[in-house]
Amino acid sequence: MTSIPRQSGILLHPTSLPGPHGSGDLGPAARHFVDWLAGAGQSLWQLLPLTGVGPGNSPYSSPSAFAGSELLIDLGQLQQAGWLSDADLAEAPSFPEQRIDYATVRPFRMEQLRRAAGRFFADQKSPRHTAFAAFCADAGAWLDDYSLFMALDIAYGGDGTTWQDWPAALAHREADALRAAIRQHADEIDFWKFCQWCFFDQWTALKDYANSQHVEIIGDLPIFVAGHSADVWANPGLFDLDEHGRPRVVAGVPPDYFSETGQRWGNPLYLWSAHAAEDYRWWVERMRQTMKLCNTIRIDHFRGFEAYWEIPGAAETAIDGLWQPGPGEAVFAAMRRELSDDLVDENGQLKIIAEDLGIITPAVKKLRQDVGLPGMRILQFAFGDDARNPYLPHNYDANSVVYTGTHDNDTTCGWWQSLEKEEQERVHAYLGVGSDSPDELCWYLIRLAFSSVAQRCVIPMQDALSLDTAHRMNQPGIGSGSWEWRYRWEQVEPWHAERLADLTRLYGRDRDSNRADDEPEA
Question: Top-level CATH class of 40-392+478-485?
Fold first, then answer.
């Protein structure tokens, strides 16, 4: 058995990167960030889902569990290919530097993508058409449904309508209606396929570059999918829907740390018996697709595989839900059988991290251990109870991933400033320090994370820069204003990388400390 290395890295979604067109993307700033990670001694880059954004601009409510986000496509590379001009990009409005104004960014970027697609398809002699055709053939199992779904959504959507409101023949996927729609919307379908080709071409090159710099990508896979998505429209038999195709029950979580009324996510729930009947094929293919994007996958809301919170579709909050049994280990066994070459590491372990936060019962813990997955430990959760608190580092096991906070938490500086005096004193007592400086407390917690026995340690970029609550990525239960944060390179000083590199070496998370005895030095 190969020894498992101790690693560390940064949590940052590409939309938060600097860049010229209103939001971060897969352009030069992404490679610069990889270089910065490598220079800081970091070997992990953790992302949020790379799929498209949905209501509230959330990457957790995407119109597809398979397609990449069109808003992440680097327009500069399309310009280099000759599909956009200097004049096209000069039309960019004035974007804010540290927030994403989606109302301005989305129409500008989508207009540029349409121009690029028009020029690509106008030049039928381009050798790139061979690569495009090969991509469409390879991805057809999901791409055909997705591109048609998006074309129909343009034609029949808007004003809060969903696919269930489309003409009945299309909503119910009658074969003659689908064939007619494919002919009628052929150009629009090609546009969405072109966007997906651009996304996967750019992302593959970026991932390869990151791996060449010894930076591994940790992706993110939400357990549930959006109701208004190609996934539910194309596979209604796999979801708990009523006779009209609308969710009979929806997903969420009961009242917890984040919300007194729980969280009503609104996603349709799975008919797990239907998934079991086809040996979890849809899940296997979803995982296969996600593994093309990353080296390791964090599964959001892992506890839903043991039991999930079922909320009546008509309920306004999550309070009146109840727990229902999930599929357990069977879905992971199917993945292991079908995806062993890509999803299983050299130690026989699945390349999956379980997001096991929230209400975690002994049964959830047992499932995670039976599957062999590392869980998550959040330092901001560590100081509210006694010494048995599972988020305190002395209670960790090595098969864990430790964070100061996640994208759902306040920044650590903001968290510290929100604590009552008594809570701050508990933190002081555990750390053995008495500083009230948010910056210093943030770095004390970063050091605590690095020094823990957890094999992997991931720090949100906001914490690496000691930023306050104004830079928070997401506030659960709030429908707007999240997912907008960006940073500027001027905020990143040389000492940030140097300090991270020092901690990485000090606590054995660098490449030299983890090099096998028989591995030659470079």
Answer: alpha beta
